[in-house]
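For the sake of clarity, the format in which proteins appear in this thesis is described at this point. Each number in the token line that follows is a code from a learned vocabulary of backbone shapes. One such record is shown here in full, so that the layout can be seen directly:
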Amino acid sequence: MNLIFVGPPGAGKGTQAEAIINEFKIPQISTGDIIRAAIRGGTALGKEFKSYTDAGKLVPDDLVNRMVQERLAQDDCKSGFLLDGYPRTEAQAETLDKMLAGMGRKLDHVLLLEVADDVLVERITGRRSDPETGRVYHVKFDPPPADVAPRLIQRSDDTEEVLRQRLSEYHDKTAPLIPYYEKAGLLRRVQGVGSMEDVRQRLFQMLRG
């Protein structure tokens, strides 16, 4: 099963991706993770990535595309994969189509986890972390015990200002993938509001057909 996971920041893709890869026994391919691993490993591609990240520049599309192609060619992807964070643009989507066609493969589904912006703001800005245990609470949906509450902190990127900026970037750059894959008949819209288990069951039901 060859999948792409798309959705706005804070929609719960990370949690649900973990459930999907465990259930369907396919690897999750995150471009961010691959870039960091390549830099740590000092590979040829890793050195190229490092030259851009050290300069504070975005890694160019052609490098990211090569990296994804190398990863998809590995043995553990033969039974399928879940791409997370790629493609980010229509140009990358077109390159991925050609890449998979060259391997004699194609996408099965593009999962879109849909959550309204206002719901995401409430979800993200209400998160609080316990610096002692690492446990994450939510002031409304999962409130902390009274004795723990005073020591909780809000991460600097869990503010409304930062989230609105990330959402704006998502709508500008990544959201155009939605009509691209809708036209190809691959887009599967999944409601991302509700309990984690409810959302997981919706995803599983759709994937099992």
In short: The beta strands are 2-6, 28-30, 81-84, 109-114, 127-129, 136-138, 187-191. The chain has a mean pLDDT of 92. The radius of gyration is 18 Å.
